[in-house]
Amino acid sequence: MKCLVTGASGFIGRGLSPTLRKAGYDVLPLSWRGAPLPDGTPTRALDLTGEIPADLFADVDVVIHLAGIAHQRARPQDYAALNETATLALARIAAAAGVRRFIYVSSVKAMGDSPFSAPRNEEDVVAPGDAYGRSKWRAERALLREHRQSSMCLTIVRPALVYGPGVKGNLRLLARWARLGLPRPPPGGKRSMIALEDLHALLLSLAGSTEFDTQTLIACSQDYSTREVYDALRLAAGAPTGRSWLPRWGWRAGTAFYDALGQGEGSFDKLFGTELYDNTRVLAQTDWRPRVSLKDCAPLLMSDPA
User: Fold this and answer.
1) Domains and CATH numbers, the chain
2) Cβ atoms within 10 A of the Cβ of 280, count?
3) How many CA atoms lie within 13 A of 111 on its CB side?
4) What is the pLDDT of residue 129?
5) Among 164, 193, 294, 175, which residue's Cα sits nearest to residue 237?
6) pLDDT, tens only, 94-140
7) From the first residue on, what is the mean pLDDT of each consecutive set of 10 residues in the chain (306 residues)?
8) Coil, strand or helix: which one is 217?
């Protein structure tokens, strides 16, 4: 079978194409600039906000759509152009070309920020408060409107926080803190996460699925606090967990300063807030099971360049 992967050179995509090829797929990897994959495999350059050639989908059975703007500093119109408009255009052309399955990798951010600490399922959605979350939610709604009754099967995957080699953002910052031996974070808060390798395995399972019901699935495996992540990173480096000598207010002041420098946004809440998700549906509706823990992945996180 042939699989087209957009965003193939990104954090999730660069390891997905080799996984698919190893499973026997003929893979067509696309990226914005045509950057090669880490193993040297070339990708085809394509700006999805421009014209998408219909012949791109010749003999393609499955599309896995990863491309999108994920960072927090883009203009709202840029999120709309790539995360919404281009996503819908890609799906339309794929359906017209006879693609049998379209897998849209969205985000739990499409579900908005819940005021509750209980794990949320796929229906526990509130209005997203930021432009990124809104663009993902609107793309999901548009795809469902057009393709729920389509001959092309639509699967929407909402990953929780993904960790693995090459991760950026607060997890990369936390690994840097662990290397430097900065104070152990205080207890409190917990977030659902998923290992990059497990997400690849889920996408591979969905690509080969024979089910044709439209579905939306949360992808997560285990829940970790910032302290638990820090401790796992330190232990992976052969170091003790360290002392919690910095009070919580000190962390709040430090993250506020970090945000003021333009390095982040809402960093304290991201580090110490609670954001939990329920993976009951994905376990019930697929044969996928998570196999990688943070402890397994911590040595690779610590070996990444700072």
Assistant:
1) 2-163+193-221+276-289 (3.40.50.720)
2) 12
3) 24
4) 86
5) 175
6) 999 999 999 999 999 999 987 778 999 999 999 998 899 999 999 99
7) 96 96 97 92 95 94 95 83 96 96 97 87 93 95 90 96 88 86 89 97 96 92 94 91 87 88 80 94 96 93 73
8) strand
Choose among 156, 131, 129, 159: nearest CA to 143: 156
The residue behind tokens 């840097």 is 176
Given this model, what pLDDT does residue 243 score? 84
Closest CA to 154 of 210, 101, 217: 101
Query: What's the rounded Cα separation, in Å, for the pair 1 and 7?
Result: 20
Q: Which amino acid is at 163?
A: Y
Query: Would you say 237 and 303 are in contact if contact means Cβ atoms under 8 Å apart?
Result: no
* Distance of alpha carbon 203 from alpha carbon 13, whole angstroms: 11
Which pLDDT score is estimated for 212?
82
The pTM for the full model equals 0.94
List Cβ neighbours of 148 (8 Å cut-off, separation of 6 or more): 154, 214
Helix spans in 97-212 (H): 131-147, 169-180, 196-207
Burial class (CB within 10 angstroms; exposed 0-12, middle 13-18, buried 19+) of 33: exposed
For the chain, give percent helix, strand, coil, nearest 5. 40, 15, 40
Instruction: Taking the CA atoms of 176, 270, 161 and 146 in sequence, report the sign of the dihedral they define.
Output: negative
